[in-house]
């Protein structure tokens, strides 16, 4: 049976750690789909820290955009993270919010057709001040709308606050 869990919150709120513990509580052998591109050395170090936290029980998949090309039926799948996944579409589609949003929604819908437990991790980037940068504002719109879309389809939604999961849905 398909199940969708969304975990959202600010930077360093404990989203990924909580998602990993949740996945391991649901399966002894979960799948981890990492959506990030390596932008610079500092970001490479962040990725390495995430990888080191996971043990051999994880099946690790690196996928920047096309999640649906991976068959994950009957698995618990952690997707980390929606923000970076959306970033890849946004920049590949010339920062066109409408086109990127439709592409991400379509890929999301194709991916969740599988019978699996999906745990999506995302950032609540619209909770802060409005950026002075026009591209950042457009991306914040894209991210917010995609978070709403996933939340509308989710069975459970958690907001992470200082390492504490607060049930929203």
From TrEMBL:
Belongs to the CobU/CobP family. It is an enzyme of class 2 (transferase). The active site is at 50 (gmp-histidine intermediate). Catalyzes ATP-dependent phosphorylation of adenosylcobinamide and addition of GMP to adenosylcobinamide phosphate. GO terms for biological process: cobalamin biosynthetic process. It comes from the Bacteria. Its EC number is 2.7.1.156, 2.7.7.62. This is Adenosylcobinamide kinase. GTP binds at residues 9-16, 34-36, 62, 80. It holds the Pfam family CobU. GO terms for molecular function: adenosylcobinamide kinase activity; ATP binding; cobinamide phosphate guanylyltransferase activity; GTP binding. It catalyses: adenosylcob(III)inamide phosphate + GTP + H(+) = adenosylcob(III)inamide-GDP + diphosphate; adenosylcob(III)inamide + GTP = adenosylcob(III)inamide phosphate + GDP + H(+); adenosylcob(III)inamide + ATP = adenosylcob(III)inamide phosphate + ADP + H(+). Pathway: Cofactor biosynthesis; adenosylcobalamin biosynthesis; adenosylcobalamin from cob(II)yrinate a,c-diamide: step 5/7; Cofactor biosynthesis; adenosylcobalamin biosynthesis; adenosylcobalamin from cob(II)yrinate a,c-diamide: step 6/7. InterPro entries: CobU/CobP, P-loop_NTPase. Keywords: ATP-binding, Cobalamin biosynthesis, GTP-binding, Kinase, Nucleotide-binding, Nucleotidyltransferase, Transferase.
């Amino acid at each position: 049976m398909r199940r969708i869990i969304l975990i959202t919150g600010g930077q360093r709120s404990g989203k990924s750690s909580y998602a990993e513990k949740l996945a391991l509580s649901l399966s002894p052998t979960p799948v981890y789909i990492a959506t990030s591109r390596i932008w610079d050395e500092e970001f490479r170090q962040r990725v390495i820290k995430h990888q080191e936290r996971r043990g051999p029980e994880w099946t690790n998949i690196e996928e920047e955009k096309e999640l649906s090309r991976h068959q994950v039926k009957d698995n618990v799948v952690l997707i980390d993270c929606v923000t970076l996944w959306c970033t890849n579409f946004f920049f590949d589609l010339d920062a066109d919010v409408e086109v990127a949003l439709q592409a991400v929604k379509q890929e999301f819908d194709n991916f969740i057709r599988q019978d699996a437990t999906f745990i999506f991790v995302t950032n609540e980037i619209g909770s802060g001040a409005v950026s002075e940068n026009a591209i950042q504002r457009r991306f914040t719109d894209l991210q917010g709308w995609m978070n709403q879309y996933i939340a509308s389809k989710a069975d459970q939604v958690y907001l992470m606050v200082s390492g504490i999961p607060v049930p929203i849905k």
